[in-house]
Design brief:
The complex is a heterotrimer.
Chain A lengths: L8 E2 L15 E5 L9 H5 L5 E3 L5 E3 L9 H5 L5 E5 L3
Antiparallel strand pairs in A: 2-5, 3-4
Chain B lengths: L6 E6 H12 L3 E3 L7 H12 L6 E3 L4 H13 L4 E5 L1 H6 L1 H10 L4 E6 L13 H4 L7 E4 L3 H16 L7 E6 L7 E6 L2 H7 L15 E2 L5 H33 L7 E4 L6 E5 L3 H14 L4 E6 L1 E3 L3 H8 L4 E6 L2 E2 L3 E2 H8 L8 E5 L9 H12 L6 E3 L2
Parallel strand pairs in B: 2-3, 2-4, 4-5, 5-7, 6-7, 11-12, 11-14, 14-17, 17-18
Antiparallel strand pairs in B: 1-8, 6-13, 10-12, 15-16
Chain C lengths: L1 E8 L4 H14 L3 E7 L8 E9 L14 E4 L19 E5 L9 E5 L1 H8 L2 E2 L2 E2 L2 H11 L6 H11 L3 H16 L1 E3 L1
Parallel strand pairs in C: 1-4, 4-5, 5-6
Antiparallel strand pairs in C: 1-3, 2-3, 6-9, 7-8
Classes of the chains: A alpha+beta, B alpha/beta, C alpha/beta.
Enzyme class (chain C): oxidoreductase
Organism (chain C): Candidatus Aramenus sulfurataquae
Protein name (chain C): pyruvate synthase
Chain lengths: 87, 385, 181
Amino acid sequence: MIDLSEIPVAKPAKGSAGKTGTWRVLRPVIRYDKCTRCRLCIMYCVENTIDQEPNLYPKIDYDYCKGCGVCAQVCPTKAIAMVPEVK
Amino acid sequence: MLVQKGKVLALVGNHAVAYAVKQAKPQVLAVFPITPQTTMLEKLSEYIDKGELRAELIKVESEHSAMAAIFGAALAGPRVFTATASQGLLYMTEMIYWVGGQRVPLVAAVATRAIASPWSIWDDHQDFVSKRDAIWVQMMAENVQDAYDITLMAFRISEDPRVMMPVMMGFDGFILTHTMERVEVLPDSVVDEFIPPREFKLIDFDNPLGIGAVATPDNYAKYRKKAMEAMERAKSVIKEVMANFEEITGRKQYGLTECYMCEDADYLLVGMGAWVGDMRVAVSRLRERGKKVGLLKIRVFRPFPREEVREALKGRKGVVVFDRAYSFGSGGVLSLEVKANAYGLTTPIHTVVAGLGGKDVRPRDIEGALEDLTEGKLEEERWLA
Amino acid sequence: MIELSIKGRGGQGVVTAGELLVASSISEGFYGQSIPFYGGERRGAPVTSEVRLSKEPIFLHRRVYNPDVVAVFDASLFSVMNPLEGLKENGKVLMNSSNPRKVWRETYVVDATKIAQDIGLVIAGWAVVNTAMVGALANLLKEYVDLDALEEVVKEEFPGKLGEMNAEAVSLGYRGVKKVD
């Protein structure tokens, strides 16, 4: 067996490099009454932090969402608002 | 195991190495032609064409790509091989360091050749020694048989879980690559047993890994230290593999160095590569004339045999290192290595820089320098140019 | 140990000639070394190949400076160089020539060009003289090279009909060599 501690390899795992959600200044908040479940936000999220609920509505994982705002920008019904974390 | 008598063949160096590679059964090769290595590539593609070697030969557009291709392939598990020389080795440099740092077991043959400018196709060791800091095991052959033997051992050493490191087999361009000599080759079945199936494999869909990721300063330093420790460990592994090879073939392997006529020698000659043969002749002739001289052959350049060299230097009245590569502004490359390990000893160490760009070196040149050494007439650094 | 220097022109098979001699000697259980000198090779340019044959292992890797035997594949080389440079006083010269003349104390001659032409060993207008020359050399080097072994090596090197023709050239070269008085 190869001793993996000997050689420079990275083991990808959720959170192994810390929670990037701590970088967030603006929090995306989905208004489900406006959401048409088009899935654009899911496809555009650069960090893969938006997932689909069983009812097909998008859900944001705030542990890893960096608050970049791409989802809010692409949402065709303007259903995502960017809300300051610090009031 | 009983000594295995193989077939005796007449082979030029490049074909002897190709034969050893064929027997080691690599599955992926990527080689870009360059003198004086090209006839090895031609022989390997001939083996594939005839079905004697079942391997993918990737046609690459440069040496950089050749090393990159087998780097990637090696991570997925197969045994891989490449060969190059001179400018090609320089062009490959970035990937040479990647492979060393990533600790990928693979084997590369280097048909040593001078570096431009001025342009030269002939032999010296400047290309080979320029890769001394790349985390590669580097071994140097003395003759065609040695090139065959080292190539086989290189696969085994490289893939040993205690080493996990690329191995470079250096052999003098033209002087060995194109010279036909008597070679005893092992039966295929013996080679199969000598080189166990390769275990190294990083690409695994069930257990994904990231390769080539950035390392933080803490992690980087940690991996470099591990590489240093592995390089030290490689010394005993190389000796173990050589001892096993000697048992199988009956051919004396000596180890990291070989001391020839050393026991009672007052003066010592140090060298590596094909001209060690000529040095043997020079030392024998001087012995016939009553001069107490000996020869220390460096067979493994990385890891450098520090302990053996230091031990061999002790108590000598004088030492001369023959260098076929030079670090401009400092000194002969092999001389510097030898001197670094003579710290605290009083033995004077001289340098003879010779054989650059294929300039032929005759036993009488070697004898002359050695004789001058015994008579206290040798300069600290002499150039045969 | 015996040292040879083979002088010819690019395209005459000088390197192959050296390798055939070495392979044949090794197949007899001896040791050998064929050392080609590569430079800017062009068809017709003077080229050299050197050979060592020995009953003991050979350690030297330097070039051959004082050959015991010089084989000259093309007599016209004498007008552009001295093919006999460094030849030992008691050494031998073998020339490919139809016009025997003494160039050294011990000079041998064989008409390798005619042998090749008679057999039909002509490629691109050039007579393939190397195998006839190797045959003639074998006659001068009986201690190290056996004619039957050499013919076998030639047939291995050149498969099929070409092998037969070259083996015949070897045989005719062996028998056709004459000492020049």
